[in-house]
Amino acid sequence: MRRRRNVKIVATLGPASREPEMIKRLFEAGADVFRINMSHTDHATLAAYVANIRAVEADIGRPIGILADLQGPKLRIGAMAGGGVDLVAGSTVRIDLDPSPGDASHLNLPHKEVFAVLKPGGQLLIDDGRLRLRVETVSGDSATAKVEFGGRLTDRKGVNVPDAVLPIAALSAKDRADLDRALEHGVDWIALSFVQRPEDVAEARKIVAGRAGVLSKIEKPSAIERLAEIIELSDAVMVARGDLGVELPVEQVPRRQKQITRAARAAGKPVVIATQMLESMISSPMPTRAEVSDVATAVFDGADAVMLSAESASGKYPVEAVEMMDRVARSIEGDEHYRMFVDAQRSEPEATTADAITAASRQVAHTVKAAAIVCWTGSGSTGLRASRERPSVPIIALTPVAATGRKLAIAWGLHCVVTEDAHDHEDMVDRACQIAFREGFAQLNQRLVVTAGVPLGTPGATNLLRVAFVGRKTG
């Protein structure tokens, strides 16, 4: 099944999409990767999701990526008297470790580590920023704050501290257990929440130990401050606009989205744009015009993937949401100005043989009007290099490793095919032509640009480029 677009679609599974029949419908509608949100998934459900996805994969015969999204540590206010109280703008509240139910003058914040970094003038954002408090004084394990934006506060609402780097590890005890189980089930990507510094990514990488790709969610201002280091340690990144829009002024989110996208593209790491992309389709069969424009912007920016959350997990129209995202992406990629936008953000290749060959394949394919670029990739690095170049022709990534095909499902423009490794140089070229013909990318007498590494099977050693003709024996 060939996609008619380059940007990939990540669809979150949930109550509306847990059954194999629905997963297959979502894939046929355009989903390339399925996200499992561990904030709402127990281990038995995780196992069922993975089994259902793999069953669909076997039925369809195309590699499908699975992303397990870890919850991350959560800061929450304690219980409230009567289940909830109204905080009035201009009033002052005391915040401390006292576990008694909160009221209009006192809030329990059962996270001692927060008080170690609170400073006068800093903010406390509650319930996704709907309530905002400004810290006035800090003393030991307590603080006083003025209510700037008031409203109804109920039990256990989330707390954000945007002005501080919290002394909290990115992996909670729950995350460690979820991570171990996700790796046991063979997921392809681990999404790491609450990333504040490069050390958070390094810790996760040590545990994952190459068994999956590590995708860092950029959702905190402190992560943006050290973005280059975090991207370097990550296999991919996500612009997690939900928490990012809480901890940053909302007017900054669009430019931060572009900043993160460009930095990831320059580094050759896949970048996913997430949160509220087609939010209204949770309950409506049609999105708003603003949502369509939002998806279009991500496609114009050259993002690798766009993500659906509640739209496909719990919404009324999961298939329609995927179909809509697919239609928007194909429309934008067919626009006469699309290539200009994508090419304008292209960065120079690294000073390596593999990068030089991959960059050359893009230029050669354009010059000889090749039908496609075919890259042999074992570890996936060659496929990611080809994706980074954003060529104007399709990219077919051939790999003998099923896990590599699944992992590359998230990368821009890659049509992944799992096949046995080439036996020699001629087999490499012949099979590239056969698969390109069979998959509908090339016709007889059309040219292909084929890249690989010699000796064959050497990871990351792309050093060969060949222009091949699709001959009659291909059919």
Question: What does this entry show, briefly?
Answer:
With 475 residues, the protein is α/β, with parallel strands linked by helices. It is 36% helix and 23% strand.
Relevant terms:
single chain; 475 residues; alpha/beta; TIM Barrel; M1 Pyruvate Kinase, Domain 3; Pyruvate Kinase, Chain: A, domain 1; 3 domains; 8-stranded parallel beta barrel; 17 helices; 21 strands; elongated
Q: What is the element layout, followed by pairings?
A:
Layout: E1 8-12, H1 20-29, E2 33-37, H2 43-60, E3 65-69, E4 84-87, E5 92-96, E6 106-108, H3 112-115, E7 123-126, E8 131-139, E9 142-149, E10 151-154, E11 159-160, H4 173-184, E12 189-192, H5 198-208, E13 213-218, H6 221-225, H7 227-233, E14 236-240, H8 241-247, H9 253-267, E15 271-274, H10 289-300, E16 305-308, H11 310-313, H12 318-333, H13 338-344, H14 353-367, E17 372-376, H15 381-388, E18 395-399, H16 402-407, E19 414-418, H17 425-438, E20 447-453, E21 462-469
Parallel strand pairs: 1-2, 1-16, 2-3, 3-12, 5-6, 12-13, 13-14, 14-15, 15-16, 17-18, 17-20, 18-19
Antiparallel strand pairs: 4-10, 5-9, 7-8, 7-11, 8-9, 20-21
Helix pairs in contact: 1-2, 1-12, 5-7, 7-9, 10-12
